Amino acid sequence: MKERPIIFSGEMVKTILDGRKTQTRRVIKKICIHSIKTLADGVVLWRSGPAGKFHRGFPGDDLRKSCPCGQPGDRLWVREAWRSDNSFKGGGIPRLGIRYGEGVTWREGNPDQTGPWKSSIFMPRWASRITLEITGIRVARLNDMNFYDWVADFCPSPLEKERALETFIGLKNMAGMAKIFWDLLNAKRGFGWETNPFVWVISFKRIEQGRQA
User: Fold this and answer.
1) Strand partners for 44
2) Alpha-carbon distance 132 to 74, whole Å?
3) Which one of 178, 186, 192, 210 is separated from 199 by 20 to 30 angstroms, measured CA to CA?
4) Beta bridge partners of 25
């Protein structure tokens, strides 16, 4: 079992804490997937370029083993925006406490004596309050998500879920909502919804309530 860091926005941290988010999508960057095809016996082949050799098993074990986030059974510790009290000089545990990007205080202390916000990328392991266990990994095109994927990853409200199930327009709106959220985080990086990239679909469960002093 290995542990690796993973970054989530403040809004997504809220949904993880609420128990609503159990899936995330991460763009496949280091493996170039150009096309796939399915044979008559159901075997799926993939290749990296228009003239490249087809490889068997997509999205099978060989490709899934390349996921940089790990494998089922491995753990992910969540990095998020955070800040500590002004006495924090780096290293060790802050004397007064930590506050997190979505506003929940998990360590005792005076919330008015906090330092500047720090980017999630600079959060050390000891400051992370959320640990996840990977329960499944698969490869898919971004636009191919179904209703259950949408619920697990994008965490719609109960009313939004009901409308999506009831009508075709609701299902169309479902894709539209996913597009807006996805593009906020990924369009500037060249992986907007319209590019329909291949993604790692990582399912997980929360295994730890928090890390308190």
Assistant:
1) 38
2) 8
3) 210
4) 201
Give the CA angle between residues 103, 156, 58 to the nearest 5°.
Answer: 110
* Contact assessment for residue 74 and residue 3, using Cβ atoms and an 8 Å cutoff: yes
* Helix ranges (DSSP H) in the chain: 10-17, 61-64, 147-154, 158-166, 168-186
Q: Which of 82-86, 90-94, 163-167 has the highest mean pLDDT?
A: 163-167
Burial 142-156 (b: 16+ CB within 10 A, else e): beebeeebbbbbbbb
Distance CA 57, CA 171 (A): 31
pLDDT digits (tens, 9 = 90+) for 151-204: 999 998 888 888 887 777 777 888 888 999 999 989 999 999 999 888 899 999
